[in-house]
Amino acid sequence: MGTFRSAALAALTLTIGGLTIGGGLFTAQAADDIVIAHVYGKTGPLEAYAKQSHTGLMMGLEYATNGTMEIDGKKIVVIEKDTQLKPDIGKAALAEAFGDDDAVLAVGPVSSGVALAMAPVAEEYEKILLVEPAVADSITGENWNRYIFRTGRNSSQDAISNAVALGKPGVKIATLAQDYAFGRDGVAAFKEALKSTGAELVFEEYVPTDTQDFTASAQRIFDAMKDQDGRKFLFVIWAGGNNPIGKIQAMDPSRFGVEIATGGNILAAMKAFKALPGMEGATYYYYEIPKNQINDWLVKEHQARFNEPPDFFTAGGMAAGIAVVEAIKKAGSTDTEDLIATMEGMEFATPKGKMMFRPEDHQALQSMYHFKIKVDPDVEWGIPELVKELTIEDMDIPVRNQ
After folding, report:
1. Which CATH superfamily is domain 5-153+292-365 in?
2. pTM of the predicted model, to two decimals?
3. Taking CA 84 as the corner, what is the angle to CA 81 and CA 87, rounded to the nearest 5 degrees?
4. Among 17, 273, 319, 389, which is least packed by CB within 10 angstroms?
């Protein structure tokens, strides 16, 4: 160990009179507390995702401990660290959590680029990083190590479920995605998933994450698609603000026979879906879709506490919280090797139903949901009405770390 420690201390700590103040919550801790670090992008363009993820994590810990926030009599202490969506800060924050705060494991981050930077830190400190909600395949693929587990869905799960929803013989598809790991991995997985459907990916467009004006990108897409035969889709893969769907829809892609399609998103982003009745895609979560006891509790409690339903990433955070508690209970230990042995192949219940950590890459296999947008004038967003639940058995998710 030690490669990341100096960077961590330089970036994140200030020592005053022998008292070290880090990037997390400064609270007194007992020697036998179970310290869990939530290392995630609390500030920046994915702040809404981060807030949901943390709310879900805390509700998951609460649910799994029957409200005690204890495991076998030991108090759970959650410390928060802000990556600011910057890989170097994420790396330093995780090193501080493991090296100075004695966190037994960490959850996070939001950004795929930050997660890829944090993965080697988990390996160096030999402690688990439970990735939630970063999506890129490479996190549990080529950049994976044995200390990485993920409750969040990966790009392949997004891609395969959306390929099932859109892919049919003769269909032509263009993609628009952000030019970083999330977008690139998402398009690569989607392209591969389409091969068995008879559909064809004919054009790929990538733009910076902070793009505001999509006119030039839309024109390139329309030029590539206008002379294509058959049913035509523009499939958008996007995270955070500046979602281009509304802006591109305003350019009237129907002039060229192009329909917009995308996966699920947070409720605020799905307001744009009201202009797209009948649009099909696949989503990770929508609060009205899963029918199980845990989701019933989440919806009821979230509505009572926050006067709104749980959102896309709230469910993911809750799944992570439940997984942490179940792993520690079943292992009877917070030792990393005991946790790894327990978590490989572990099945656990979540707001989405059953998840299972695949032993080969520690990716949580889980259901996805094929939807069709329904518009209700009394609801602010387009409602993703369930067409079909795609279960673990319905999707052959590639193992990409071999």
Report:
1. Response regulator (3.40.50.2300)
2. 0.89
3. 95
4. 17
